């Protein structure tokens, strides 16, 4: 990526996006709420600590803006430094005070695939498994890998959130996702690839969170 494009994007982030943006994190277990976004900016995804935005004039870049008071920016930047270049991970081009400028990855999140009925082939799962194994060889512990943090681009899998990779130990989320994929999605849902209601997916998200809390007790 040319440094001039990154610098131009950085200017847009600081002079338009950050000046007019209104995002709020009410609970660390729920996605950040986006209250206002300036023109030409689009929300690409919102996690529990940060929101990712794209600009119409910069199709190959995104910016991840952390909500006020939420940690993790410097850790995420360090993870990308350790990962270097890998086909299934993004790259971090610039670290701002409250944001990261990164390479935009193509495709749709697995959550959006379920929402719209886009098939998720086994190759996506294999790509993610290989990417996570690579991260572990680099001395990190991949965590928080789920349907909103993995993308599917015509059968190619990408991991798009690495913010928790410096924490120690496995949280088992990706293994649980794979079990659901092999036991339910692949033999049943993949045959028809029908779109699933957003309310059902949200119910599954909250139900899984409750299950994980109960399992820890």
Automatic annotation (TrEMBL):
InterPro entries reported for this sequence: Kinase-like_dom_sf, Meiotic_Drive_Suppr_Kinase, Prot_kinase_dom
Keywords, in A-Z order: Kinase, Serine/threonine-protein kinase, Transferase
Tagged with keyword S-adenosyl-L-methionine: no
SUPFAM superfamilies named in the record: Protein kinase-like (PK-like)
Start and end residues of each Protein kinase domain: 38-217
Molecular function GO terms recorded: protein serine/threonine kinase activity
Domain of life, per lineage: Bacteria
Protein name: Serine/threonine protein kinase
Species in which this protein is naturally found: Paenibacillus profundus
């Amino acid at each position: 990526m040319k440094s001039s494009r990154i610098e131009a994007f950085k200017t847009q982030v600081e002079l338009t996006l950050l000046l007019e943006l209104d995002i709020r994190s009410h609970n660390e277990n729920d996605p950040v709420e986006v209250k206002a976004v300036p023109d030409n900016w689009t929300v690409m995804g919102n996690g529990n600590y940060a929101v990712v935005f794209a600009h119409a004039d910069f199709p190959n870049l995104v910016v991840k803006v952390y909500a006020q008071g939420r940690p993790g920016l410097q850790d995420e930047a360090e993870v990308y430094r350790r990962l270097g270049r890998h086909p299934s991970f993004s790259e971090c081009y610039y670290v701002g005070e409250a944001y990261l400028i990164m390479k935009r990855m193509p495709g749709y999140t697995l959550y959006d695939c379920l929402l719209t009925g886009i098939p998720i082939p086994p190759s996506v799962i294999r790509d993610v498994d290989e990417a996570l194994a690579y991260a572990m060889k680099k001395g990190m512990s991949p965590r928080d890998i789920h349907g909103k943090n993995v993308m599917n681009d015509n059968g190619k899998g990408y991991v798009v959130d690495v913010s928790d990779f410096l924490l120690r130990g496995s949280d088992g989320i990706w293994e649980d996702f794979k079990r659901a994929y092999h036991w339910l999605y692949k033999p049943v849902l993949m045959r028809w690839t029908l779109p699933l209601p957003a309310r059902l997916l949200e119910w599954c998200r909250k139900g899984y969170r409750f299950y994980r809390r109960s399992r820890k007790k």
